[in-house]
Amino acid sequence: MAQDYSFKYFTVQFPADHPYVAHVEINRADKMNAFLEAMWLEMGQLFARLSDDSNVRAVVFSGAGDKAFTAGLDVKAASEGSALAKDGIDGTDPARKAAHFRRHVAEFQDCITSIEKCEKPVIVAMHGYSFGLAIDISTTADVRLCSRDVKFAVKEVDIGIAADIGTLTRLPKVVGNYGWVKEVALSARVFGAEEALRVGFVNAVYENKQETVAAALKMAGLIASKSPVAVQGTKEILNWSRDHPVQDGLRYTGVWNAAAIQTQDVTKALLSGIQKRTPTFEKL
């Protein structure tokens, strides 16, 4: 790969048997993949790079180790050394303190949103503890898979805050059930794989982490075999239409496809169907 994917807190691999697929893994297993401030900044940079990389057409996102996808925010580290610590802003008036925190939260939100903004479809494969930030991250992904041992929780009320990085905005749109979202968000109770599947939070459940990651890679491989013009356009239009009225979505689709439908990929796809062969598509 031409791009440099050397990161401290994430590993990036390109499986030989899945062309154009990037496998990103959170690499802090000794701390249950809990996030430091430096990690979410790095994650934003990583997904921006994946978005621009023409050698990548789909992404799988998982966590290292057997215990957790991520246990969420490293609260101890955040309270001692990050912008969430109060010591550096004591002495300022409430308005200035609020402005400081607002900018910090917006930066955090942008890093998480980098997964949603990534032009390439992102499949998240979760296992073990998947608390707090895991929900924020996974709701920005396009497809969510999990292992049977997963433990989910919208955990923020247990540390004295309302979730502010995306869960309260995105999770209701993912599952389409405000009553259920309010229950888990207000109580911070743990729920498992079968409940997550029942409410539509995850697409499928697998026996263990290995099977979950394997299924994610297989799905990513299938997506990566399609026209990148079509796949990236589909993700863009689906995300845009989710947040706009139907008529606006139809108009946006028409404007988008007025350009995109002129691609040679359409001819290649149609001919391959007639000729019963697998098409190949140029990089985008």
Automatic annotation (TrEMBL):
Record InterPro entries: ClpP/crotonase-like_dom_sf (IPR029045), Ech1-like (IPR045002), Enoyl-CoA_hydra/iso (IPR001753), Enoyl-CoA_hydra_C (IPR014748)
GO MF assignments: delta(3,5)-delta(2,4)-dienoyl-CoA isomerase activity
UniProt-annotated location(s): Peroxisome
GO cellular component, one term: mitochondrion
Annotated keywords: Acetylation, Fatty acid metabolism, Isomerase, Lipid metabolism, Peroxisome
GO biological process, one term: fatty acid metabolic process
Main location: other
Pfam families tied to this protein: ECH_1
Transmembrane segments: none
Pathway assigned in UniProt: Lipid metabolism; fatty acid beta-oxidation
Sequence similarity: Belongs to the enoyl-CoA hydratase/isomerase family.
Protein name per UniProt: Delta(3-5)-Delta(2-4)-dienoyl-CoA isomerase
Annotated organism of origin: Penicillium frequentans
